[in-house]
Amino acid sequence: MEKLAELILIPSPAMGHVAQMLELAKLLIYRNNQLSITVLIMKLPDYIDAVSGPFVDSVAASSTSNRLRFFQLPSPDPTPEWSSKTRGHFVYRLVQSQKSHIRELLTSQRPGNNKLSGFVVDMLCTPLMDVADEFGIPSYVFFTSPAAFLGLMLHFQFLEDERHQNVSDFKNSNSTTLLSFPSYAYSVPPSVLPMVLVDRDTWLGRFLDFARGYRKAKGIIINTLAELEIHALDAYNNNNNISRSEQDLLPPIYPIGPILNQSKSRSESEEEEITNWLDEQPPHSVVLICFGSQGSVPVDQVNEIAVTLEKCGCQFLWSLRRPPQSNNAQFPGEYTSYSEILPEGFLDRTEKKGKVVGWVPQLKVLSHEAIGGFMSHCGWNSILESIWCGVPIATWPLHSEQQVNAFQLVKEVGIAVEITLDYCERNKDQPMVTAEAIEKGIRELMEANSTVRDKAMEMKEKSQASVMQGGSSYLSLGKLIDEILKNTAL
């Protein structure tokens, strides 16, 4: 029997990243029957994140292909120092701790007997490329954020390493000074630069290392589509506004998105309750409020949102999640009682207009006819899902690269209205977003005949066409598979 080309996929354990990687695995084996995939799973402890582990288990249990296998890496005992810092720091330490386990797996107990043709590592797992290098295995990076942010990371790394520039100085720029970066079509205000790049400890401690890894990759797979990020991809591929010395160091890129989370993550009864409620609402009347798997807002901010929703009188579905309670590394969880956190009587007064829930099946909700707008943290998964469903966005970023994502959506892509562009949960001096600002954003978002809504529908058609046979992402994925199969023939 002919041997297959085997890939090892290594997702970050955070929910938004692992969901994309698992969908990528299914997409690869669907597109080519010469590929076999082993996904190496890192699980976060339940007290850190109670969502991603059960999700991965359900996906693994539902797999019916003998060309898609899952291998759970040992879970180390986190040190107190891991939990004393941020969620990102915790994940970074967890990833680094797996090097010896992956090395052992490749040496003695790797599943399957096929030729290993490549590693595909998540954008936050580039330290594991060192193990692939030891075994002479080519590494690819799966970038789960937009191409514009990839360009920004690589540009900052170039400035840091080649020009010896302290990139954290950008955050101290005059607030009225706009900054020009190659991967953005419009000049960027300093206030929307992501903390992960301009906070010196985070940049030097993690993200500079990630960016260096991207340059060493044999290729970078991006969950985006050419029609969505025309400027960023053109700047990357065609040397627009990039110096020759910087361009020479760039690996090929493969925009193959949108890759969407198609798997279930809740019980059928919980999904049915939400769907039944949406079925009773008029078309395009409901605003979905959801801040993602890692997103939550403090109590006083919850109150401002509640006041606004009551004043607006619009239909709403609100995914309200509890901020981390015990340590900095913990992910948000679920409230046991919403009445304890919401203004007194809010649930009774809004019973006919709205519904407050915990985790939501977001793609399924966004695809429902009743949804007319999405108040979002602007995580890239959520953006792609909203685009796929043609739902306009009101921006409320929280962390990671979300501030610059929000800027890109409003100023460049045109599918979003602004509630805030520069909200950052890590900023201790972050002012509260007022009820007035929230109301203004919701009213603009839910306007029936708006340019933003028209643009969202236009991008819906383009995103769905991109993955069809002959579409831009379909063709890019084919080129990636051809490249992987060449590795097998060597």
UniProtKB/TrEMBL annotation:
<keyword id="KW-0808">Transferase</keyword>
<keyword id="KW-0328">Glycosyltransferase</keyword>
<dbReference type="InterPro" id="IPR035595">
    <property type="entry name" value="UDP_glycos_trans_CS"/>
</dbReference>
<protein>
    <recommendedName>
        <fullName>Glycosyltransferase</fullName>
        <ecNumber>2.4.1.-</ecNumber>
    </recommendedName>
</protein>
<dbReference type="GO" id="GO:0035251">
    <property type="term" value="F:UDP-glucosyltransferase activity"/>
</dbReference>
<comment type="similarity">
    <text>Belongs to the UDP-glycosyltransferase family.</text>
</comment>
<dbReference type="InterPro" id="IPR050481">
    <property type="entry name" value="UDP-glycosyltransf_plant"/>
</dbReference>
<dbReference type="InterPro" id="IPR002213">
    <property type="entry name" value="UDP_glucos_trans"/>
</dbReference>
<dbReference type="Pfam" id="PF00201">
    <property type="entry name" value="UDPGT"/>
</dbReference>
